[in-house]
Amino acid sequence: MKIKINLTTQIIIGTVLGIILGAVLGPKIVGIKIVGDIFLRLIQMAVIPLVFCTVIAAIGKLPIKQLGRLGMRIVLWFTITTLIAALAGLVLGWLFHPGVGLHLTLDTALTKEITSNKVSSTDMILGFFPTNIFESLAQGNTIQVIIFALLFGFVLSKANTNQQYDSILMGLQQLNQLLVSLIQVVLRLAPFGIGALMAAVTADNGLTVLIPLIKFLGIFGMGTLLFLIGLFVMIMLRAHLSLHTVMHGFANILLIAMTTTSSAASLPVEMHDAEKRLGVSKEISELVLPLGMALNSNGLAMYLALACVTMTQFYGLSLSFMMMLKIVLLAIVACLGTVAVPGGGLVALTIIVPALGLPLESIALLAGIDWFAGIFRATLNVVGDTTTAIMIAADEHELSQVSVSI
């Protein structure tokens, strides 16, 4: 009987083999790094158009009435919780130094560019807004692309009241599906690409590469637990839910998120239990949860911020205030449109790492433990969306006290 090994297991095997080869063969195998570099470039080439299409389609398909007062409230909750998660990741990395102990070398030119890159707050804010969207797309400026996509999506939703622009919306959704399929094809190369990068890193640094990875997972797990407790306390106080109701209502949601490591796979259970076990109205659930899956991600924001701080520590770089601010902002915007994508953590890293001036190959270390980190990411993503739905329902008097008393 033919045994089929899933992609996650293949990546873990590739990572382990890469570490073994790097440790055994040493400098002889450093040249294999080119295989990993090609893989990262293939992932990166589809990211900007994917984010562009996903954000426009997610906003554009919503009726304009839902983008009014209620839409602004949803966006506000998404932004606040994601910002707090990103800040938490930054603080955790700064306090516990998961990347210290591993000394990777950074190109001299890159080092000067990162350390001397002093940008005023005015220039940084102006940098969010594109002057030419085609230039932004060509340069891979994620923040500018997302700003344009949000505005274009809003205009598309407003103009499409009589479905006269359904063909444009359908075209964007179809293009998005093709780009997702392209990323799925590229991800089949992940065991080889990540294995090659891990072999090269291990050849240069030895088995000491394992220590920061274990520290990273431990710190991320601790941060996830603390954030979950904070979210649960918030809805207990604001929505007047009992501890028993919260535990009962989130039991299946947590189980599915942790075992599938997928926000998309968790959505059906999330919507069912939000309505039946937590008392959220069907109208709020059907609006907030699918939109949250596409545009909101507390777990990914925390992961990205912590990962970026960890990577700067790999290279012995000090973090200025402006760089910390940039990490937080990039962690927030990189979440848009990548949460439901297969390999979303890896895809988001290919957005944020080059934007910080760090080399793409630094992604390899964290890519090797991506499945384990995905457990924490998906759990926090899904719970963050559900708690937002509860808060919105409570504010709109759409939370059934009868259902939540079970």
From TrEMBL:
Single GO biological process annotation from the record: dicarboxylic acid transport
One GO MF term: symporter activity
Keyword Membrane tagged: yes
Localisation per UniProt entry: Cell membrane
Ranges that cross the membrane: 7-26, 38-62, 74-96, 137-157, 178-201, 213-237, 249-267
Pfam families membership: SDF (PF00375)
SUPFAM superfamilies xref list: Proton glutamate symport protein
Principal location: membrane
UniProt KW Transport keyword: yes
UniProt keyword list: Cell membrane, Membrane, Transmembrane, Transmembrane helix, Transport
Gene Ontology, cellular component aspect: plasma membrane
Membrane topology of this protein: Multi-pass membrane protein
Protein name: Dicarboxylate/amino acid:cation symporter
Organism per entry: Weissella hellenica
UniProt lineage: Bacteria, Bacillati, Bacillota, Bacilli, Lactobacillales
